[in-house]
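Quick one: structure for this chain?
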Amino acid sequence: RGSDFSQDEKMAQEDSAGALLRALDRLRAMDERFARILSDPHAYRFQCVLTDCRCGTSGTSKSDSPSPRLEKYRCDEEYFYPASMIKLCVAVAALHLVHRVRVAHVPDFELTTPLRFRYARDDDGSTRSFHEISRDDTNRSGGVITLAHLIRNVFLVSSNGAHNLLLDFVGRSTLRQFLFAHLGYKHFRVDCYLQDSKFGPRPGDRLVGVEASLASGAVGLPFGDDLLNYVFDPRRPPDSPPAPLFSDYSLGSSYVVSEGDWDRENLLEEAGGIVQRPKDMSRKNQASLIELQDFLIRVCRPDLFTEGRRRFGGSNKPPDILSFADRAWLTETMSRKTTESYNPDYREGGAYAEDWNKLFLPGVLKARSGDAVRIANKLGQAYGFTLDNAMICDVETGRTFFLAACVYTNENGTLNDDVYQYDLGESLLAALAEACCLELGIRD
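Got it. Here's what it folds into:
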């Protein structure tokens, strides 16, 4: 047994349900690099959470009724940047809100309805200009923007521009109400654009209109703060910031400032220079790893939830946040490999590997043949962090578990220099998924 585990962890590992800690033991033995990370998890900000969907109270599959078991390792012990994992929340909120708008206001609106986004911009503080975003050249069906195509690109290639459009459509305040008041999560902060200079809005743009092109003509859709009173109880509690999650939001020892960087903390900072202090991440997007997994479970397997965070089973099931059709479509979209996509077409050209949008996939394939496994996930990678949040299902046996993990690999401590050890992070997450599969009996 590894001496780096605490006594509590050792006791938990001796329990028959300690699959995650046994998987970490496997991980330690697989590679000396992984052993180094596990011997100093604080430095690598390594954390993970596993939910086994077919455990009875003793950790064994004794009945057909799912009684999931949560196991976690160092979750939310120190700050991590959620990167593109946060896009799942925005995509789901968009689907939820559009469904309610469609039922009450625009019954012939579909996920494939063409959309036009109209933006205003104050160019010099006094002159306002307008521009429209209505084309997406990756859409082989006429090059139009649709909700379905934006969401597909969020999961297939993690498009920042598609995410930014969805975020503006949903609105920051509406999203906070959806996550906090409607679903009960306390720690999400999703306020910031993610940089994309080729597609979508840019800093300084303000959404002023969304138009749907229906067969009967163009119809303006409610968006942003307009959706608050439209779909939520007007007696809702006032908007409030997310609860503090970490004691320290500083990251790294220095960071690079580049021209055109959307991430510049101070426009007076000299482009091309290095700022010799840690980067303050307190105003960046924020999430709890446990809440991220909770959210994914609630999206993919709402049958496991009752009222209250992390309480599974029972009869007090809360309302679904997606319709059956929207859930089926989204789960299929999340499960698709980038190289399997026909529209947008990423099948050829060699730009994307088979596992490009699924960091756990290489490890899962070592335990179980590819045709037998389905992975619905949203990954992220930025500032030296490598992360994934996934539902992993053996479609032949029905064996299912949820795994979320994060690791930070930035040896020189400098941010924005593009010198990160992402290969190590990706290898670690793949090996963790393999170890979990083996411990949970998902193997050939």
